[in-house]
Amino acid sequence: MTIDYLERATELLAKMPGVGRKSAQRMAFRIIALPSEYALELAEAIRALKEELKVCEQCFNFSASTLCGICSDAKRDPRLICVVEDASSIKNIERSGRFRGLYHVLQGVLSPMHGVGPDDLRCRELLLRVASAPIDEVIFALNPTLEGEATSAYLGELLKGSSCTLSRIATGIPVGGSLDYCDEITMASAIDHRRNF
Amino acid sequence: MTIDYLERATELLAKMPGVGRKSAQRMAFRIIALPSEYALELAEAIRALKEELKVCEQCFNFSASTLCGICSDAKRDPRLICVVEDASSIKNIERSGRFRGLYHVLQGVLSPMHGVGPDDLRCRELLLRVASAPIDEVIFALNPTLEGEATSAYLGELLKGSSCTLSRIATGIPVGGSLDYCDEITMASAIDHRRNF
Is there a contact between A47 and B52 if contact means CB atoms under 8 Å apart? Predict the structure, then answer.
């Protein structure tokens, strides 16, 4: 019996987000068409993602060592903490180049519907970080969904007693976007939080 | 120094067709979120695509052994040969369930612009197959592009002397498609090759 290598690779690739059977097949053919080094490197990178990647002890970002690259970077301001849902948000914020502090990955949001409570997230660790070091500001950068909002509100309540400033990233019309395609809740938020020139 | 596993996987995944940086990053995070077995299986499947996959000696389809699954299937009609550009076309034709003969993968099309001549393709092997075994029909199923058409015409000319029927798959309006979105060349072909009820 021979294994259908193409079929197996296609099936596995089709499990990726946004990848259907047709795209998965095109990917498999591209892998065959590209030089061997690419396939071997990709295979190794995928294995390493799961086997080598650890979680930072301080901020719970993905990391190759005990402390992640951001937490161990002396040039970052340790008095600023940006709270995010997951590590993918960090990548997006870093690309903006506007934040020079440290992060705190909650590893999710509160969701009573899905049985996710404060103990399932890194809430206690955040309170501990704020209590044990001088922190100037905690910035909430959770997704502006119902659950993200509830989680920010919950943590904001717990951190109220501390001396640090609490803030959240702005919601509004995306830069370069069009008012024509803006939903009414975003529009309402953009008007409510209008800024003076 | 620590390797940025995420960055490396993202970069490699972004080389896949139709996958940009953002999708590649989402894929990397999905790999981390899924169980370890998935990542290991995918890594192995990608490696095998390049290292284990061979080419069928008869039809040049991808194969795990000397003869591919189709060529070694006794239930297929060896007197019918369908000529295709590459192995991905075979997958699409097989899914239609309408062809029960064997294939012949040219591994490309004639393209003087890109320096691809008959000797770079499996043209000689096709002529040899037709000459050495009783073949009833050769069906051309190349992509209906300028280069695909030229290749079909070239091979048709060479096979004219043989006793087998030469045919080509139909061009026309895609089933379920709309005339509104049909280009004028396809429309012209659909009218020229109209069928009687």
Answer: no
Report phi then psi at B137, rounded to 5.
Answer: -150, 140
Measured CA distances, B8 to B15, B21, B39 (Å): 11, 11, 15
Q: Do A31 and B8 touch (CB under 8 A)?
A: no
Tokens at A113, concatenated = 């519907």
The architecture (CATH level 2) of A2-52 comes to: Orthogonal Bundle (1.10)
Across the interface, of A8, A25, A46, the residue whose CB is closest to B31 is A46
Record the pTM: 0.72
> What CATH fold (topology level) applies to the domain B58-168?
Dna Topoisomerase Vi A Subunit; Chain: A, domain 2 (3.40.1360)
Among A17, A45, A64, select the one facing B12 at the smallest CB separation. A45
Helix, strand or coil for residue B127? Answer: helix
For chain B, which residues make up each domain, given as ranges?
A: 2-52, 58-168
For A92-134, how does the pLDDT look when each residue is reduced to its tens digit (9 = 90+)?
A: 898 888 899 999 999 999 998 889 999 999 999 999 999 999 9
